[in-house]
Amino acid sequence: MRKIYAGIIVLVFSSFVMPQNIDSLDNVFYQQFNLGLKSTQQISSENNIDHKCAFGIVSKIKINYDKFSKKQQSIISAVLDRPQLDTSIVSPAGIFRIHYSNFGIDKPSYSVDEFALAADSAYFYETGKLGYPPAPIDNNKGGDNLYDIYIYDLGILYGFTTPETSLGNERFTSFISIDNTFNGFGFFTHGINAARVTIAHEYHHAIQIGNYKFDNKDSFYYELTSTSMEDFVFDYVNDYFGYMPQYFNHPDFTFSQTNGKGYDLAIWNLYLKQRFAPISDTLGFHIIKRSWELIGKNQRALSALSNALEESGYSFKIELNIFAVWNYFTGYKYNPQYYKDGAEYPSVRKFAQYKFSQPSVEESISTEPLSNNYLFFIDQTQNVSDTLVSIITNGDVQSGIIDANVVPVKENVSYLLSSSYISGGTTIIEGKYYSQIKSNSGDFFTESNIFNNTLAASVKINNRELDFVFPMPFNYAKNFFMRIPVAPNLLNIATLSVFDISMGNVYNRTVQIFSSNKIVVHWNGLDKIGRAHV
Question: Pairing with 241, which of 12, 27, 145, 182 sits 20 to 30 Å away (CA)?
């Protein structure tokens, strides 16, 4: 039985900053020893958002282990080294060795056999369906080369992944720790379902640091992706619902600096999956995976995400704006056109409220990079009861790539709403409402508008119209789809016919029209039988 439990990590490491405060760790440990492993008095619900997964802080501690004193190292080792448990089983597919105890405080309260099936499911979904490489083997650290999972009492933590042996280039072997009960304060889900989503979450951390890299400057993106894996693998559990209000309360924060430490932003990957599903079941997954491949090539997370979108023919700033529209139609404003589970999501609560009187009103707003800002206008013109929500997206990617402790540089913009046409502006409702964003930051800002709780049909998300195929030339190694402009129609479909240079018919099919910032159809460059034409 372990004598020092990982629940202490929550109380100790939440105050720990690497590496400047390294000398204070020893004192903090001893201050917290007598508080109890599951103390509710010391931790508020708001702060508990830190404690779903200790992967970030555990990784920082382990990777910087040599910088601690011998005394500190002994305490760290007692908490973070592999525990000694009395029993183990191999998962049915022979992928995992699962260690647990049959007695005492560490005994699991849920079926280990069911958990073993869940672990295999997570493995096959993430490495099979999604195509990620498996976590690297550990050279018999757990008795063999199966991936090791340890189930024991973690206090108020769901679990964590611990980096162990360096593989070079900021990659590591690892093992996973999982709580044995998921009972008590701080757990949104309990029992075997909590164990299911936790292994989906933690195994992706093992993939991340085993095959790409560990970068503590972008820890939010590690948690964002791992939390989204919970829903991808076990979409009936929905533990992530508990963290979503952190983002919905503050969409105006820089994307990487939400209160939810990344757990709340799992909704971004769910958006990518569902948004692109009408085009391809795999496109959203491809963009997510490609971002990790670029992280592995030493790109910062948001730069990698932006480039992954761009490679597939999309713009981060425009997708962030459409994301804001989807997030408006949740909760009591649910619209089935958007998220499938949107009725159970929270509603956006951060609105700046203004009064509109004809002929125009101009408001100044301060925006953070990579943020969404909801402006709520009530038309006070006589005999008019219109409401208008203008969503302004600051799409400045480079300014949004910052460390967690850096204060974002805000950009002040002016938003003009008028009942008269504005040259170069946006037509919201023809003959009724027009708008214009005035900024010194060039092309960073995009806009969409919701008129009387309906997305305004005449919105231009930006002012440039696509009148050519993009990308041109198409590169099979770099591009996932090409976008071909078409005219919109009521059926939202088009017939796409592609001919080679000798006028042979290469591709002919009815396809769906896709509207984002442009009205287009997508083609992956393959012919009728799936061959590439080089």
Answer: 12
* Calpha distance 249→257 (Å, rounded): 13
373 contact partners, CB below 8 Å, separation of at least 6: 251, 252, 352, 365, 367, 391, 392, 393, 394
Q: Which of 65, 71, 77, 111 is nearest to 9 (CA)?
A: 77
Beta bridge partners of 415: 363, 437
**Two tokens at 460?**
């231009």
Asked if the peptide bond before residue 471 counts as cis, ω within 30 degrees of 0, the response is: yes
Q: Which among 449, 403, 479, 426 has a CA at the least distance from the CA of 216? A: 403
377 with 390: CB under 8 angstroms? yes
Peptide bond into 473 cis (omega under 30): yes
Burial code of 295-319, b = ≥16 C-beta within 10 A, e = fewer? bbeebbbbbbbbbbbebbbbbbbbb
Residue 401, both tokens: 């790539």
At 59-84, the pLDDT tens digits run 888 888 888 888 888 888 888 899 99
Average pLDDT of 135-145?
92
Which two structure tokens, joined as six digits, stand for 54? 């200790």
Supply the pTM of this predicted model. Answer: 0.81
Query: Is 124 a residue whose pLDDT tops 70?
Result: yes
For residue 120 the two structure tokens come to 């295999």
The rounded distance, in Å, linking the Cα atoms of 238 and 200 is 12
Residue linked to tokens 């006589």: 382
Pick from 295, 131, 100: nearest CA to 215: 295
Where does residue 283 rank: exposed (0-12), middle (13-18), buried (19+ CB within 10 A)? buried
Cis omega (within 30 of 0) on the bond before 19?
yes
pLDDT in tens, 357-371: 889 999 999 999 999
The region of weakest confidence among 11-25, 233-247, 315-329 is: 11-25
**The pair of three-digit structure tokens given for residue 402, joined into one six-digit string:** 């910052």
CA separation for the pair 458, 449 (Å, rounded): 9
